[in-house]
């Protein structure tokens, strides 16, 4: 019988953080393989109602998003530059609760964040679950647009 952790996370996700090394990664003219530089470069979370989504994320994460438009795509950019990300609305973007990638956002106070998500109109759909070892806890919420968003609370210290 598998545990909930086995069905949601790969074996690598259950290990302590470490640098991923791919021995035969293309370098594209650099000395260091591309995947050793950074795995995530930019994150886009699709939304239908940008004002509603901005209100949700600003309330849940206690942040201010910067609004802008790029190539006819409405964006609300998260205030974290490296790697960065944004809520996006426009042609070709559709929220999904069941299909696609599940981004995990940093949640140093997971219980408080889950409470704020509920107050903002979201739902906790999984967890919190304590991961083995010194990995921390995770949970999944559904945001105001219907996206499944993962939350990760690292072990304090």
List keywords for this structure.
alpha/beta; 4 helices; 4-stranded mixed beta sheet; 20% helix; 157 residues; VOC_core; 2,3-Dihydroxybiphenyl 1,2-Dioxygenase, domain 1; disordered N terminus; 8 strands
Plain-language structure description:
The longest helix is centred in the middle third of the chain and has 12 residues, at 50-61. β7 (137-142) and β8 (148-153) form a beta hairpin. α3 packs antiparallel against α4 (110-119). The protein starts with a helix and ends with a strand. It has a single domain (39-153), classed as 2,3-Dihydroxybiphenyl 1,2-Dioxygenase, domain 1. The protein has helices at 4-8, 34-37, 50-61, 110-119; strands at 42-46, 66-70, 73-77, 84-89, 104-106, 123-130, 137-142, 148-153. It is built from four helices and eight strands; from the N terminus they run ααβαββββαβββ. The strands form two sheets. It has a four-stranded mixed β-sheet with strand order 1-4-3-2, with helices on one face. A four-stranded mixed β-sheet has the order 5-8-7-6, covered by helices on one side. The chain has 157 residues and is an alpha/beta fold. This is Glyoxalase, related to lactoylglutathione lyase (COG3324). InterPro entries: Anthracycline_SecMetBiosynth, Glyas_Bleomycin-R_OHBP_Dase, Glyas_Fos-R_dOase_dom, VOC_core. Residues 1-31 are annotated as: Disordered.
